[in-house]
Amino acid sequence: MTALTVTDLTVLRGECPVVDQVSLSLQAGEITGLIGPNGAGKTTLLRAILGLQPHSGTSSLASLPARQRARTAAWMPQTREIAWPVAVETLVMLGRVPHLAGGAKPSAEDRAATARALADMALNGFETRAATDLSGGEQARVLIARVLAQETPIILADEPIAGLDPAFQIATMQIFRRLADQGKTILAALHDLGLAARHCTRLLLLDKGRLVADGPPRDVLTPENLHRVFGIAAHVMETEHGLIFQPLEITR
Question: How many CB atoms within 10 Å of residue 146?
């Protein structure tokens, strides 16, 4: 089932296209990695898909009323500033706001969703701590938990594993895989091509604002694409643990 449709999405900076006529459809049950070099337009594309960035073309998410959009898609931006010393549990509970009627108190269902998200990100015991007192990696886990607590059919995340240690990088990707297996749609911008290769069912390769490859990791991470877009050579190998990707050298 198609969960998200984007048609000819374009974002201009002056007269220069930052995102250039991108079209794609995401299916329920997919975990899709959005990859590309720095400045390729990944963040801008995600924001435009959500309707947070002025654009031409269409996005089935951007066209939704704000409240319905918040119940349909959860958003984790790349910037992770926590501006005030709110308790971790309270911050994660903010993910439930789209589901609350105006002024309503959190229900048992809201509290249960928050507890599940805290447990997923190994934050049990952190509930009453001020989020601003945590390390950068711990704060990142709290913000991922807030996204999980929102319990939307679609998750869009911009570099969700940045700043996490290797164990939590793997754990986060495994959580995304589990959610996709439950029928949710995940679109995450990733710079770690190794984790993208192993955990994503599909990769979108963006270069200079244009979608230049779209398909299973083994079909996108080809020597030609790696040289042309990233300027690298890499070792890519199928193993019992999935596709293994290791950059080797700069090729330009």
Answer: 24
